[in-house]
Design the sequence.
């Protein structure tokens, strides 16, 4: 496992992280908590030290699961969580709709206290604003409180996690995070979905600020198992992509055509490993967070160092394909939930 500095902080992360939302919620088809906790433990045993959580995931249950799986190795891992959604006064909404945000310093304190208790720790290493808009990133009182919490030792570093859906608005939010706040940011980024990364990563490199990437496999397109007959269980968030023929064509049909053009790059690596290597190409990228929901995926992604390295020439060839939209006339719909 490779380990990288999260630029702008004193944290060192495993280059492959674990997004606890895949096992702490049912949005990716994992409904067995025992299996979810087993995957978390196996990830640690395979070198993963960065675990990314959020208090809104199953209304805090995902944080409790992390404590139950990894509490005895707390000091050997980097614990990240997120805040902002008011989970105490607003129940979960159908269809994974966003809850109302509360960005007041008072709520920040309450949210942190709840996460610390559920995670079984006295500090959170990396605490993130969860899907903030520009008003939250520009909230001086909120950031003053984050600095106070850092001074008190309750958090070690903080940043933003942009979302929930990939769109052009997040370019402004990412720039505000990196340029104005000088804090790391988590983005949706893959070799098929570069809207935000292609704008933000060069700026982050110049500013010396770290970036994290989630959904580096484009919600499964770059995992190697999908075909036109693939379906998802009820409750799996990817079903929303396939609700109309237009969405199916834009995401799955055209996406699979693009994946087919990547096959020449798979000598010595899987498509899933290629996706992670691509996302990690920038020196500003501290860690990528694939969607891990089974042992096969976990083993593939944590064996990244065994794969043939991605050369600069290969990277340039992939970027040339992307710049030409892989020769297609339609684009992927740039929306990814959380």
Sequence:
């Amino acid at each position: 496992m490779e380990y990288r500095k999260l630029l702008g902080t004193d944290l060192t992360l495993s280059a492959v992280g674990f997004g606890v939302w895949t096992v702490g919620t049912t949005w990716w088809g994992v409904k067995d908590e025992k299996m979810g906790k087993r995957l978390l433990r196996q990830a640690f045993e395979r070198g993963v030290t960065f675990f990314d959580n959020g208090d809104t995931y199953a209304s805090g249950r995902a944080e409790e699961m992390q404590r139950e799986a990894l509490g005895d190795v707390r000091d050997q891992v980097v614990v990240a969580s997120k805040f902002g959604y008011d989970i105490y006064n607003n129940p979960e909404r159908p269809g994974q709709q966003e809850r109302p945000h509360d960005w007041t310093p008072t709520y920040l304190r309450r949210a942190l206290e709840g996460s610390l208790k559920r995670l079984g720790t006295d500090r959170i290493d990396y605490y993130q604003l969860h899907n903030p808009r520009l008003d939250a990133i520009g909230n001086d009182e909120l950031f003053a409180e984050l600095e106070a919490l850092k001074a008190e030792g309750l958090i070690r570093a903080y940043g933003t996690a942009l979302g929930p859906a990939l769109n052009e608005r997040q370019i402004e939010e990412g720039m505000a995070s990196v340029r104005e706040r000088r804090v790391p940011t988590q983005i949706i980024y893959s070799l098929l979905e570069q809207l935000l990364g292609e704008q933000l990563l060069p700026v982050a490199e110049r500013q010396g600020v770290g970036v994290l990437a989630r959904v580096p496999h484009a919600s499964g397109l770059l995992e190697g198992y999908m075909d036109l007959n693939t379906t998802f269980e009820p409750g799996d968030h990817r079903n929303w992509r396939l609700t109309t023929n237009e969405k199916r064509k834009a995401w799955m049909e055209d996406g699979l055509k693009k994946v087919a053009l990547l096959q020449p790059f798979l000598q010595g690596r899987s498509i899933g490993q290629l996706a992670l290597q691509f996302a990690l190409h920038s020196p500003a990228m501290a860690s990528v967070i694939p969607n891990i929901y089974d042992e096969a995926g976990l083993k593939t992604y944590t064996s990244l160092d065994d794969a043939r390295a991605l050369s600069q020439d290969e990277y340039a060839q992939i970027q040339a394909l992307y710049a030409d939209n892989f020769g297609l006339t339609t684009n992927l719909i740039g929306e990814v939930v959380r």
